[in-house]
Design a protein that fits this description.
Layout lengths: L4 H13 L5 E4 L2 H10 L3 E4 L5 H10 L2 E3 L16 H22 L14 H4 L2 H7 L6 H17 L34 H4 L7
Parallel strand pairs: 1-2, 2-3
Helix pairs in contact: 1-2, 2-3
Amino acid sequence: MTFSAAELRAAVEAASDWGTYVTVHAYTPEAIQRAIKAGVKCIEHGSSMDDASAQKMADAGVWLSPQPFPEEIAEVFPRGSAQWQKAQEIIAGPDKTYRLAIKHKLKTAFGTDILFSSELAQRQGKLLASLARRYPPAQVLVMATGKNGELLKLSGRRNPYGGELGVVRAGALADLIPVDGNPLQDSAPVANPEKISC
C-alpha cells in the first residue's frame, strides 16, 4: 500500500481536470480495491489479485494490464535475497492474474515494464506470444493492438498521438509489421522479431 486513499483520489481528480486518467501499479487485493474506489481506470500488474478484486474491477469497468516480466529480470538481485524471492512471486503472478481476467471478462491490455534493457526488450514478442496458452492467437493480437488503442484513448486531450489508435483504416495511426505466418492462427510469428519480413 504505497498511497493513501486521499492521495489516490487527489491524483484521479487532478488527472480528470486535465482530461485524462490514472493507472496504478497495484499488486495486492487491498491496493487494487483502494485504487478502484479512488476512480483509477487501469490496474497494472495485479500479480496478487484475488477473485473479489477481479470482480470489483469488472463491476467498475477498470482495465487490467498484467505487464508480465521475463524470468531474467530477477537476476538484477542477488540470488536467494529477499528482493530475488519477491521477484519470483511477481514473475509467477500473471498466471493467476490472467485466469481471473478471463473468468471475470476484464478489459485486458498488453504491455511490459522491460523498457530499460535492450536485451530484455527483445523478449516482448515472446511474452506476447506466451499468452496463447490462455487466449486464442487472434485475441492475443487484438489485446496488443486494438485493446491497447482503446486504453490509450482514455488519455483524452493528453493523447500524444493526435489520431485514432487501435484500428486499421484511413486516417488512423498504425505501425503495420509483416511477419512470416498468420498471427491470427499462430502466435509464434510475433515471438521472433528477427524473422519479421520487411
